[in-house]
Design brief:
By secondary structure, this protein is of the alpha/beta class. It has 3 domains: 52 residues, no CATH class; 87 residues, Threonyl-tRNA Synthetase, Chain A, domain 2; 278 residues, Rossmann fold (3-Layer(aba) Sandwich), CATH 3.40.50.300. Strand 17 and strand 18 form a beta hairpin. Helix 2 packs across helix 5, helix 4 packs across helix 5 and helix 8 packs parallel to helix 13. Bound molecules: adenosine-5'-triphosphate (ATP). The site of adenosine-5'-triphosphate has 15 residues, from helix 8 and strand 16. Keywords: ATP-binding, Cell cycle, Cell division, Membrane, Nucleotide-binding, Transmembrane, Transmembrane helix.
Length: 479
């Protein structure tokens, strides 16, 4: 009969002695550790002058580096030392044990050896440890994905995500701290405008602390989330990023607010065309935009394959705040007729809008097919807080929830947080949009709105939005 374990042993304590012994066999940990006693021996036998001079030079170089090139010092020194420490003192000693416990091991039938995923590399930043694993034949990526909840508990991580690098190798990301916990201020505008920057407008921050860049030119964007999820912060962050381009006449925004102007009215002056009350006029606006798109396509045909915004052919962004109001909630037979017209016009815009420089930005509370008929035609989907896993899959596509898009777990206390699928990446990225208060939106609208004459591109005045009580607050890392 097997022994019954109780107390700490029942929870599964680590075979500490064996773990330490196995670590000490690796040069990655032994060489740096042996260096210190070796230096001591050298000092005692040969004198301390040289070691002390060497240490002084090293400290001075590091101090100057840290003071003058802060970011490079952080990336090249701090994060590397952290990765080394995490690899050898946190993950490596426990890894063999964890893999065995989670069933990620296979036994070779010829030799009887037990094979488990092996750590190849560890990368660390301020908030993530990424562990690259080499999977033995017989352990698959989806098995590692299934072990994510257990790995999260084992590593006491806030979130764990798995992404395949190549067959047989996967990255396991342990998210330790959350840089998105605090409200993010809008990014400063660039000093000089460059239409190429429209390919990566900064809307907030990603979970790894890097800026969240959204491409709108050539993309249709769909934002969904329950009431209070912070959909409007994505919209206003985008309009903030576009504001100098609007002022310069390179971008034109058409706004439709079927909720009677409750949202878009704050930034009324930014919109070249705007409808908030008359549904017929909204349908007409979308139809005219679709006609304008056809004309633009003819104009550009044979001239350029990729669109570049200019004063003559500005980039046109059509903003619809709450699509649901237009597609399913218009009352009576007349409402249904209008909805049908709106669907057709939207289909025309979404099906063709990329090359001629048109994009649709729509938000919605629900993601079902009856609400968003043309869901697949939106190339960028941003999913904020949602009610359940099924909604997540509908919003971001099948399998997105398993790949880490835990929209149903975004707490109410974190409005503005979303998961987004980025170009070229299979795994969703967790982001948070910057937040603009109603007053900041009004200020933006009066400063960059269309009432004033369009300014020469070179002389766009840059205003810092991050002013609290008259004091300028620097924006950089997520605050
Ligand atoms: N990015 C953000 N950072 C911090 N707080 C935010 C952010 N976005 C929204 N909030 C806060 O959450 C509240 C609700 O957000 P918001 O109105 O944008 O949600 P919504 O999804 O547009 O809701 P609804 O569909 O009801 O209009 C805001 O009043 C604001 O206080």
């Amino acid at each position: 009969m097997g022994k019954i374990k109780s107390g700490r042993k029942a929870a599964g304590d680590y075979p500490v002695g064996r773990m330490i012994a196995s670590q000490l066999r690796h040069p990655g940990v032994m060489v740096p550790l042996l260096g210190i006693p070796a230096l001591g021996v050298y000092g005692v036998t040969q004198g301390w002058t040289r070691p002390l001079i060497g240490a002084g030079v090293l400290v001075t170089v590091l101090a100057v580096w840290a003071l003058v090139w802060r970011v490079s010092f952080r990336n090249q020194v701090v994060y590397r030392v952290k990765a080394w420490y995490r690899r050898w003192f946190r993950y490596a000693p426990r890894w063999w044990f964890w893999m065995g416990r989670l069933g990620l091991s296979v036994t070779d039938e010829m030799t009887g050896w037990i094979l488990r995923p092996r750590i190849l590399k560890v990368r660390s930043t301020g908030c993530i440890d990424s562990v690259l694993l080499d999977l033995p034949l017989g352990v698959r990526t989806d098995q590692v994905m299934q072990a994510v909840p257990d790995l999260r508990h084992a590593a006491k991580a806030r979130r764990v995500a798995v992404r395949e690098l190549e067959p047989g190798q996967v990255w396991v990301d342990f998210f330790t701290a959350d840089p998105l916990r605090k409200t993010i201020l809008p990014a400063l505008h660039p000093v000089r405008l460059n239409v190429r920057d429209l390919d990566g407008l900064v809307l907030g921050y990603c979970e790894d602390g890097t800026p969240w860049r959204l491409k709108v030119v050539g993309r249709h964007v769909f934002v969904c989330g329950v009431s209070g999820a912070g959909k409007s912060s994505v919209l206003w962050s985008l309009l903030w990023a576009l504001a100098p381009y609007i002022k310069a006449g390179l971008v034109v925004v058409h706004g439709i607010d079927p909720k009677g102007g409750m949202e878009l009215d704050f930034g009324r002056e930014l919109f070249d065309r705007y409808e908030a009350d008359d549904y017929e006029a909204m349908a007409e606006m979308l139809e005219q935009d679709a006609d304008y798109l056809d004309d633009r396509t003819k104009l550009l045909r044979g001239k350029a394959r990729t669109f570049t915004a200019s004063r003559e052919t500005p980039f046109v962004l059509i903003v619809i705040d709450e699509l649901m109001q237009l597609t399913v909630l218009l009352p009576g037979p007349e409402g249904r007729r209008l909805s049908a017209r709106i669907e057709v016009a939207l289909g025309r815009l979404l099906g063709k809008g990329r090359a001629p420089g048109f994009a649709v930005f729509a938000t919605s509370l629900l993601v079902t097919k009856d609400v968003v008929t043309w869901r697949e035609l939106f190339s960028t989907k941003i999913a904020m807080r949602l009610d359940n896993e099924a909604q997540v899959e509908m919003a971001l596509g099948e399998g997105a929830r398993d790949l880490g898009a835990e929209c149903d777990r975004i707490p109410e206390s974190l409005p503005g947080v979303a998961y987004v699928l980025q170009e070229g990446k299979r795994e969703p990225v967790r982001v948070r949009a910057a937040y603009m208060s109603d007053d900041a939106i009004r200020d933006m609208a009066t400063t960059y709105g269309l009432r004033g004459a369009i300014e020469p591109v070179d002389s766009v005045t840059l205003i810092n939005p991050n002013t609290v009580d008259g004091e300028v607050v620097e924006s950089g890392e997520a605050a």
